[in-house]
Amino acid sequence: MKIKILQSFVSLLIILSYITFTTQNLSAQVKSQKYAIVIHGGAGNFPKDVPDSIKQKYINSLEEALNIGKDILKNGGSGLDAVEKVINYFENNILFNAGRGAVFTSEGRHELDASIMCGMDLTSGAIAGVTIIKHPISLARLVMEKTPHILFAGKGADDLGIQLGVEIVPNSYFHDSTNYQKWLRSNLKEQKGETVGCVVLDQSGNICAGTSTGGMQNKMPGRVGDSPLINAGTYADNNTCGVSATGHGELFIRNTVAFNVSALMEYKGYSLKQACEEMIYKRLPQGSGGLVAIDKNGNYELIFNTQCMFRGVANSEGVFETAIWK
To answer: Do both 5 and 79 map to the same domain?
Structure first.
């Protein structure tokens, strides 16, 4: 009798284990189909009365960038690939202050910055002040994957790009005539540029973030903002969220904005929305910039305290949106 009871108990345990295993597998399958992407093309002041043709160019560009990332994620691609390819697109687009569309230093040259981070293990790579690298975000990824270091700057970063075989261009490649004439006429000492960024949650549950920029218009040669600085302009942690920031770099550095969004979630139990609002609305002065972010559950935020931020979001639930103004 006791043996039969024991056998029945063991059988019940086996059945329960099978049900639990099956349920977990189904949950994992559902989770593996989930993805999300947010992008930005800079925050600042963009007049609402611009011709519709110009506005549409920006909207079309944001939609193209979103589709590049969405297709990679939808097909099960890695978050790092999605971030890199989306930002490559922006770096090839003269409408944005990254790569080919980079603004000018006070000496009339271009110095570009970028960073990328993987939330699975906090690995990251960054470059600052490069002058001949066609795709700064791609070199930043190679720094992460091919070197024991995180940040390379100036000539050393350019030389590393040559050594690692990335595409090299003359500094004049980044010289767009529209920007050049704007630079020649400009009496401004300081002007925010349209930094670009991308954050994704891929089907494996990995959060990745990247940011690329030409820096601040008329910046002093050698100046570095927040975009290539992990914790300030870029951050990703699978346990919390991923962030890419844009705006007045010095303010984002002083307030360690990207990391603090994650820290508020981890240490204070904030939601992604609460953490982003705390940093952008309460810690930073009005007009300083914005950020895009995704948490581990696929929740997203596109938040700014400027007049506008070029931005977009898409996910596995069918959301696909782009916008410029509030």
So the answer is: no
Q: How many domains does the chain have?
A: 2
Q: Which residue has the tokens 């596995």?
A: 316
Pairing of strands 300-304, 289-295: antiparallel
Q: Are residues 116 and 189 in the same domain?
A: yes
In angstroms, rounded to a whole number, what is the distance separating the alpha carbons of residues 33 and 203?
A: 5
SS3 of residue 312 by DSSP = strand
Catalytic annotation present for 195: yes
The predicted-structure confidence for 233-291, as pLDDT tens digits, reads as follows: 999 999 999 999 999 999 999 999 999 999 999 999 999 999 999 999 999 999 999 99
Active-site residue, from 105, 131, 195, 211: 195
Closest CA to 43 of 246, 222, 196, 223: 246
Residue 300 has which token pair? Answer: 């997203």
**Which two tokens mark 322?**
């782009």
Provide the token pair at 136.
């700064």
Q: Regarding beta strands 112-118 and 124-130, do their DSSP bridges make them parallel or antiparallel, or are they unpaired?
A: antiparallel
